[in-house]
Amino acid sequence: MSFVSDILEFNERFVEEKQYEQYLTDKFPEKKVAILTCMDTRLVELLPKALNLRNGDAKFIKNAGAILTQPFGSAMRSILVAIHELGAKEVLVIGHHGCGMTKLDSDALVAKFKKNGISDAVLTTLENSGIRMERFLKGFDKPEDGVRHSAEMIRKHPLIPSFVPVHGFLIHPETGKLELIINGYDELEEERSE
Protein backbone atom coordinates (compact mmCIF):
# COMPACT_ATOMS: atom_id res chain seq x y z
CA MET A 1 0.00 0.00 0.00
CA SER A 2 1.23 3.52 -0.80
CA PHE A 3 1.36 6.53 1.49
CA VAL A 4 -1.56 8.12 -0.41
CA SER A 5 -3.62 4.92 -0.13
CA ASP A 6 -2.98 4.87 3.62
CA ILE A 7 -4.08 8.49 3.92
CA LEU A 8 -7.26 7.91 1.94
CA GLU A 9 -8.13 4.81 3.94
CA PHE A 10 -7.61 6.62 7.25
CA ASN A 11 -9.53 9.67 6.00
CA GLU A 12 -12.55 7.59 5.10
CA ARG A 13 -12.74 6.27 8.68
CA PHE A 14 -12.04 9.75 10.09
CA VAL A 15 -15.06 11.18 8.25
CA GLU A 16 -17.36 8.19 8.86
CA GLU A 17 -16.62 8.32 12.61
CA LYS A 18 -17.13 12.12 12.62
CA GLN A 19 -13.74 12.66 14.26
CA TYR A 20 -13.67 16.07 12.55
CA GLU A 21 -16.32 17.45 14.90
CA GLN A 22 -13.77 18.39 17.57
CA TYR A 23 -12.02 20.64 15.04
CA LEU A 24 -15.05 22.55 13.75
CA THR A 25 -14.51 26.31 13.64
CA ASP A 26 -14.82 29.08 11.07
CA LYS A 27 -12.25 30.83 8.90
CA PHE A 28 -11.76 33.83 11.19
CA PRO A 29 -8.94 33.52 13.75
CA GLU A 30 -10.57 33.52 17.19
CA LYS A 31 -7.54 35.13 18.86
CA LYS A 32 -7.10 37.62 16.01
CA VAL A 33 -3.50 36.67 15.29
CA ALA A 34 -1.49 35.66 12.23
CA ILE A 35 1.66 33.62 12.81
CA LEU A 36 4.55 33.31 10.37
CA THR A 37 6.63 30.34 11.40
CA CYS A 38 8.95 27.69 10.07
CA MET A 39 7.82 24.51 8.34
CA ASP A 40 9.95 22.38 10.70
CA THR A 41 8.12 19.15 11.54
CA ARG A 42 8.91 19.51 15.23
CA LEU A 43 6.67 22.58 15.42
CA VAL A 44 3.49 21.13 13.89
CA GLU A 45 1.87 20.20 17.20
CA LEU A 46 4.35 21.71 19.66
CA LEU A 47 4.01 25.36 18.59
CA PRO A 48 0.22 25.68 19.00
CA LYS A 49 0.35 23.81 22.33
CA ALA A 50 3.23 25.99 23.61
CA LEU A 51 1.17 29.10 22.75
CA ASN A 52 -2.10 27.71 24.15
CA LEU A 53 -3.73 27.83 20.72
CA ARG A 54 -6.49 25.53 19.55
CA ASN A 55 -7.79 24.86 16.07
CA GLY A 56 -9.32 28.08 14.78
CA ASP A 57 -7.42 30.45 17.11
CA ALA A 58 -4.79 31.70 14.65
CA LYS A 59 -3.82 31.86 11.00
CA PHE A 60 -0.57 29.95 10.46
CA ILE A 61 1.70 30.77 7.53
CA LYS A 62 4.64 28.39 7.23
CA ASN A 63 7.77 28.42 5.14
CA ALA A 64 11.45 27.54 5.47
CA GLY A 65 12.94 29.52 8.34
CA ALA A 66 9.90 31.82 8.68
CA ILE A 67 11.78 34.03 6.22
CA LEU A 68 10.03 36.50 3.98
CA THR A 69 12.13 36.62 0.84
CA GLN A 70 10.14 39.30 -0.92
CA PRO A 71 7.63 41.92 0.18
CA PHE A 72 5.08 40.88 -2.43
CA GLY A 73 5.45 37.09 -2.26
CA SER A 74 2.86 34.51 -1.28
CA ALA A 75 3.70 34.46 2.45
CA MET A 76 3.28 38.23 2.69
CA ARG A 77 0.04 37.97 0.73
CA SER A 78 -1.24 35.47 3.31
CA ILE A 79 -0.39 37.86 6.15
CA LEU A 80 -2.18 40.71 4.38
CA VAL A 81 -5.28 38.55 3.81
CA ALA A 82 -5.21 37.45 7.47
CA ILE A 83 -5.24 41.09 8.58
CA HIS A 84 -7.48 42.81 6.05
CA GLU A 85 -9.93 40.02 5.22
CA LEU A 86 -9.94 37.70 8.22
CA GLY A 87 -9.59 40.09 11.14
CA ALA A 88 -6.10 39.39 12.52
CA LYS A 89 -4.99 42.28 14.73
CA GLU A 90 -1.43 41.15 15.52
CA VAL A 91 1.36 39.29 13.74
CA LEU A 92 3.84 36.90 15.36
CA VAL A 93 7.03 35.82 13.60
CA ILE A 94 8.29 32.66 15.29
CA GLY A 95 11.63 31.15 14.36
CA HIS A 96 13.32 28.34 16.23
CA HIS A 97 16.65 27.14 17.53
CA GLY A 98 18.35 24.53 15.34
CA CYS A 99 16.70 25.77 12.15
CA GLY A 100 17.88 24.20 8.90
CA MET A 101 18.05 27.65 7.31
CA THR A 102 20.90 28.59 9.66
CA LYS A 103 24.00 29.03 7.49
CA LEU A 104 22.26 27.28 4.60
CA ASP A 105 24.79 26.48 1.90
CA SER A 106 23.10 27.47 -1.36
CA ASP A 107 25.87 25.84 -3.45
CA ALA A 108 25.36 22.52 -1.66
CA LEU A 109 21.60 22.78 -2.22
CA VAL A 110 22.11 23.48 -5.93
CA ALA A 111 24.34 20.38 -6.05
CA LYS A 112 21.42 18.40 -4.58
CA PHE A 113 19.11 19.86 -7.24
CA LYS A 114 21.50 18.48 -9.86
CA LYS A 115 21.77 15.12 -8.10
CA ASN A 116 17.97 14.92 -8.19
CA GLY A 117 17.86 15.46 -11.93
CA ILE A 118 17.62 19.23 -12.36
CA SER A 119 19.71 20.05 -15.40
CA ASP A 120 22.35 22.72 -15.75
CA ALA A 121 20.21 24.14 -18.58
CA VAL A 122 17.32 24.76 -16.18
CA LEU A 123 19.61 26.40 -13.63
CA THR A 124 21.22 28.55 -16.33
CA THR A 125 17.79 29.60 -17.62
CA LEU A 126 16.77 30.62 -14.11
CA GLU A 127 20.00 32.57 -13.60
CA ASN A 128 19.49 34.31 -16.96
CA SER A 129 15.94 35.19 -15.85
CA GLY A 130 17.28 37.00 -12.81
CA ILE A 131 16.88 34.23 -10.23
CA ARG A 132 20.09 34.26 -8.20
CA MET A 133 20.27 30.98 -6.31
CA GLU A 134 22.54 32.37 -3.60
CA ARG A 135 19.89 35.05 -2.90
CA PHE A 136 16.82 32.88 -3.45
CA LEU A 137 18.16 30.16 -1.13
CA LYS A 138 19.70 32.53 1.41
CA GLY A 139 19.34 31.55 5.04
CA PHE A 140 20.70 33.41 8.05
CA ASP A 141 23.63 33.27 10.44
CA LYS A 142 21.42 33.02 13.55
CA PRO A 143 17.68 32.25 13.78
CA GLU A 144 17.02 35.56 15.54
CA ASP A 145 18.42 37.33 12.46
CA GLY A 146 15.74 35.65 10.36
CA VAL A 147 13.03 36.66 12.85
CA ARG A 148 14.21 40.27 12.84
CA HIS A 149 14.40 40.35 9.04
CA SER A 150 10.85 39.03 8.55
CA ALA A 151 9.33 41.15 11.33
CA GLU A 152 10.91 44.29 9.90
CA MET A 153 9.69 43.49 6.38
CA ILE A 154 6.15 43.04 7.73
CA ARG A 155 6.27 46.12 9.97
CA LYS A 156 7.54 48.36 7.13
CA HIS A 157 5.25 46.93 4.45
CA PRO A 158 3.17 49.68 2.82
CA LEU A 159 -0.02 47.60 3.12
CA ILE A 160 0.29 46.80 6.84
CA PRO A 161 -1.80 49.15 9.00
CA SER A 162 0.27 51.27 11.36
CA PHE A 163 -1.67 49.97 14.39
CA VAL A 164 -0.79 46.27 13.87
CA PRO A 165 1.94 45.11 16.26
CA VAL A 166 4.51 42.69 14.83
CA HIS A 167 6.20 40.53 17.45
CA GLY A 168 9.24 38.28 17.06
CA PHE A 169 9.98 35.08 18.97
CA LEU A 170 12.27 32.08 18.99
CA ILE A 171 10.94 28.75 20.20
CA HIS A 172 12.98 25.81 21.41
CA PRO A 173 11.86 22.87 19.20
CA GLU A 174 12.21 20.34 21.99
CA THR A 175 10.79 22.11 25.04
CA GLY A 176 8.51 24.72 23.47
CA LYS A 177 10.13 27.51 25.53
CA LEU A 178 9.60 30.92 23.92
CA GLU A 179 12.06 33.80 23.83
CA LEU A 180 10.78 37.27 23.00
CA ILE A 181 13.01 38.89 20.38
CA ILE A 182 10.78 41.82 19.36
CA ASN A 183 7.96 43.28 21.43
CA GLY A 184 5.64 44.76 18.82
CA TYR A 185 3.79 46.84 21.41
CA ASP A 186 7.02 48.62 22.35
CA GLU A 187 7.82 49.28 18.69
CA LEU A 188 4.36 50.80 18.10
CA GLU A 189 4.80 52.99 21.19
CA GLU A 190 8.21 54.17 19.95
CA GLU A 191 6.75 55.03 16.53
CA ARG A 192 3.93 57.01 18.15
CA SER A 193 6.36 59.02 20.29
CA GLU A 194 8.55 60.02 17.33
Number of helical elements:
8
Q: What is the CA-atom radius of gyration, in angstroms?
A: 19 Å
Structural class: alpha/beta
The CATH architecture of the domain at 26-104 and 139-193 would be: 3-Layer(aba) Sandwich
The coarse overall form would be globular
Distance between the first and last residues' Cα = 63 Å
Query: How much helical structure, as a percent, in the residues?
Result: 40-55%
Mean pLDDT: 95
CATH C-level of the domain at 26-104 and 139-193: Alpha Beta
> What fraction strand?
15-25%
CATH superfamily of the domain at 26-104 and 139-193: Carbonic anhydrase
List how many beta strands DSSP finds. Answer: 5
Taken in chain order, the helices and strands follow as HEHEHEHHHHEEH
Per the CATH scheme, the topology name of the domain at 26-104 and 139-193 is Beta-carbonic Anhydrase, Chain A
Low-confidence stretches: none
Major β-sheet annotation: 5 strands, mixed
Major sheet strand order: 2-1-3-4-5
Write up this protein.
- There is one protein chain.
- The protein has 194 residues and is of the alpha/beta class.
- It has a domain of 134 residues: 3-Layer(aba) Sandwich (Beta-carbonic Anhydrase, Chain A).
- The chain is 41% helix and 15% strand.
- A 5-stranded mixed sheet has the order 2-1-3-4-5, with helices on both faces.
- Strand 1, helix 2 and strand 2 form a beta-alpha-beta unit.
- Keywords: Metal-binding, Zinc.
- Pfam families: Pro_CA (PF00484).
- InterPro entries: Carbonic_anhydrase, Carbonic_anhydrase_sf.
- This is carbonic anhydrase.
